[in-house]
Amino acid sequence: MSEPAAPSEPAGSTRTGPGRLLVAVYALFALAASARAGVQIATKFGHAPVAYLLSAFAGVVYILATVTLANGSPLARRIAVVSCSVELAGVLAVGTWSLADPATFPDATVWSGYGSGYGFVPLVLPVLGLLWLRRSAARASGKRA
Amino acid sequence: MVIVAGLVLAGYAGLMTARDRRMDVPLLIAVGVLEVMVLVLVGLVVAKLAGGPRPASPATLIGYLIAMPVVPAAAAAWGLLERSRWGPAVIAVAGLVAAVLIVRLHQIWPVIHV
Fold it and tell me: What is the pTM of this model?
């Protein structure tokens, strides 16, 4: 399990095949969430501080997931699993919170309404990320067994 | 018009993914055409900004103006590294995203008619 993958072997890599698309979409959300949070915090922080801080947090999680999925080393994989899990928990928690207590969210975050403002991609993405990490890990160890 | 171009590119690249095709020169040319169209659009919006009128949230608009040209270029670079059907898949997403970004750009500043 903790056996290091051969460096130049593309099999089991997290950035090739479907992973290529996954990393691209993650990069997109990293950019979208951080840019959005940056603009909002810089221009109107007092308007919806909770929403903007959560957007910033989401941005950091997306950046971490993008970088670790693109890297794919054993350590990066482990960080990617944590990032995707935090992201899934975040979108579920913030999604529920935003529906239960709309007053705290006068402005939306990436995770508001379970990511409804982004076509629910934020809800699907961590699930795909975790599935992909599992599949590529199984493929990597299968090739080497 | 740029929205249509983005959607057409997404459809074409999506078809290539479905048919298990790799990145090829025609697809790269198509991405290049989209990139040029996006740059022209950005130029027109900047010209309008320079002319005086301001949108409700200039920071967001400027963010979009910076991000929009990056999307097709970064997708082409990232997709070219891939030697499978997932290269065109990246381009398909980029085409879709370009279209969505332009729709949102119109919402941010309805003065734009391109």
Answer: 0.89
Residue B112 has pLDDT above 80, yes or no: no
* Residue showing tokens 């990066």: A76
Render pLDDT for B65-110 as a digit per residue (tens, 0 to 9): 999 999 999 999 999 999 899 999 999 999 999 999 999 999 998 8
Nearest chain B residue to A18, by CA: B86
CA distance B92 to B96: 6
| Cβ contacts of B110 within 8 Å, gap of 6 or more | none
Q: Give me the interface pTM, i.e. the ipTM.
A: 0.91
**Does A23 touch chain B if contact means CB atoms closer than 8 Å?**
yes
Distance from the Cα of A85 to chain B's closest Cα (Å) equals 24
Secondary structure element (H or E) that encloses residue A131, with its range: helix A121-144
Residues 17-36 on B with a CB inside 8 Å of A are: none
> Is B77 within 8 Å of chain A by CB?
no
Residue-wise pLDDT tens digits, A57-94: 999 999 999 999 999 999 999 999 999 999 999 999 99
- Chain A interface test: which of B16, B78, B108 (most A C-beta within 10 Å): B78
